[in-house]
Write a structure and sequence with these properties.
Elements (H helix, E strand, L loop, with lengths): L8 H14 L3 H8 L4 H12 L13 H4 L4 H7 L1 E7 L2 E6 L5 H11 L2 E6 L2 H12 L3 H10 L19 H8 L2 H16 L4 E7 L2 E8 L2 E8 L4 H11 L14
Parallel strand pairs: 2-3
Antiparallel strand pairs: 1-2, 4-5, 5-6
Helix pairs in contact: 1-2, 8-10, 9-11, 10-11
Length: about 250
């Protein structure tokens, strides 16, 4: 990093001092100091070792490939299986010099291991997405359990005259509370800076902005839009009866 003039020697010294007092990974400390980005770290390591980098946020991993490495092993070695071609299994890691992990993965999978480099953060997010039942699955279960208007009240499209009492009743329905809480919790887990809930022709699109990039997370039925928006307004101390003007909360 110093050779590429991404860091100066003084930055390294400061980071080492922080590491001595607080602990933690040197790479995380440097990123936290704002002197280098995670992408710069991955790029420098890739160039130094001659190992290709990968952007996991733009890569869709097949469930068949994920099944080759257990969740316990993936978390233990901090790796994510990416693709399989013939006898070769490509694995993303932030520590490509961990020969023990690579040898053990080859033994456990019966494959020859090919390594690509990704940032710690991307690997954490990929493990969560691939192995852990996130908000997507749980919300789908809740929606499947909504049999009809008796379970969740739906406002008619374009209806302007809605009483505050009706809206309050709407946002207190258990499914709406659970869905809104899960969407927010998922955003926190993914370290999203923004959550966009957009009504489209075929339903609601939920997107998270992560490191400046919008990533689609889920599609929801359009009929829950009024209830979901009203619930979020209540949580933000906004006027739930105001449907025309933008509000800050």
């Amino acid at each position: 990093l110093c050779k590429k003039k991404l860091l100066v020697e003084n930055d390294i010294k400061k980071a080492l001092e922080i590491q001595k007092t607080r602990g933690g990974k040197l790479s995380d400390i440097l990123v936290g100091m704002g002197v280098v980005s995670r992408n710069d770290l991955v790029s420098a390591l890739s160039e130094e070792l001659g190992i290709p980098p990968i952007d996991l946020s733009r890569y869709k991993i097949s469930p068949d490939v994920v099944s080759l490495i257990s969740k316990k092993v993936a978390k233990n070695y901090h790796v994510v299986p990416v693709s399989k071609m013939g006898d070769f299994l490509t694995v993303a890691t932030a520590d490509p010099l961990n020969i023990f992990a690579i040898d053990d993965l080859a033994h456990l999978t019966g494959c020859k291991i090919s390594v690509v480099i990704a940032s710690d953060k991307e690997i954490d997010e990929a493990i969560a997405e691939c192995y852990e039942a996130g908000a997507h699955e749980e919300i789908e279960k809740i929606i499947d359990g909504i049999k009809g208007p008796g379970n969740i009240e739906v406002l008619e499209e374009g209806k302007e005259s809605v009483s505050s009492e009706q809206l309050i009743k709407l946002v207190q329905e258990a499914p709406v509370v659970k869905i809104s809480n899960m969407l927010l919790a998922e955003g926190v887990k993914l370290r999203a800076s923004d959550i966009l809930i957009e009504p489209l022709e075929g339903g609601l699109r939920v997107r998270y902005r992560i490191d400046g990039v919008l990533r689609e997370a889920q599609r929801l039925p359009k009929r829950i839009h009024p209830a979901l928006v009203s619930r979020l307004k209540v949580m933000s101390n906004l006027n739930i009866a105001e449907r025309r003007l933008p509000q800050d909360g």
